[in-house]
Design goal:
By secondary structure, the protein is mainly alpha-helical. It contains 16 helices and two strands. β1 and β2 form a beta hairpin. The longest helix has about 35 residues.
Length: about 325
Amino acid sequence: MEALNWATALPLIFMAIMGLALLAYVILDGYDLGVGILLPFASDAEKDVMVSSIGPFWDANETWLVLGVGVLLICFPAAHGVVLSALYLPVAVMLMGLILRGVAFDFRVKARDSHKTTWNHLFAAGSLATTLAQGWMLGAYITGFQNDTWGLLFSAGIAITLPAAYAMLGAGWLIMKTDDDLQRKAARWGQGALWPMGFALTGISLATPLVSPTVFAKWFVLPELVALLPIPLACVAAFCAIRHVLTTPRVVQAGYGWIVFAATVLIFVLAFLGLAYSIYPYIVIDRLTVWQAASATESLVVIGIGMAITLPAIILYTIFMYRVFWGKARELTYGL
């Protein structure tokens, strides 16, 4: 156990900031990626409302990705070199997907009717490509960037199943932000995504200890196994709550549709906590601990001053933005 001082505490603080920034990104950008994935299943008029529901938020949500990757770059340069060297291709795919989403978002509003369908398809394609790339990156990270058959199959499995989880988030968001036919459609989309998401999360939970001996050792020993049982049990309870709301239309009509989004977010948070516990104290599992990868203490002190200014500003702006633009979505329009 490392003695508690600035040299040991600062890397942990910045690792926590990086982890929370990436969790915020996964939740906030996850729902608008999910809306993009669901876009092809809606009518033209519904597509406009769906895009409107994420219009004020989607680009600001990506700020959290920039913050998380920025912390990795400047606070943990050794880990940054390992991670980015192993993930050049999926990172490039993710960036192309994000760029395509941004371009399609603006052009679909200005385009002529004959071109609007194309931009809608590109927006959905960019959302799906981004999600697939993020799933591959997560799988590769959990396996410690193993390039053997099982490691590649695991990464591919998460890449294929992550869209169901994001689609569930997107459906929950639309249930909160829309009314009438689109809200009922979103509930049906949620029903369609629920079981694939459940099977995906169960498969990941079972496979992760098998592909990573470090994770297996952290979970399947006593008394830790008993102490950690509330995490999977809470996930099961949240899953059942989602299913109940989605299959009970009167609950949604009574104004409790937000439970779908909140319970999905809870599952994401619990999965994050489980992963954080599993990999600690590694930042690159089985290869680099948080202290081995960290910048010099003097550098972290200077970075901390900037972070003390930047992080509260991002949090306050995010809260302010959601307060201002909260409410039911309507068709997106731009002034000419």
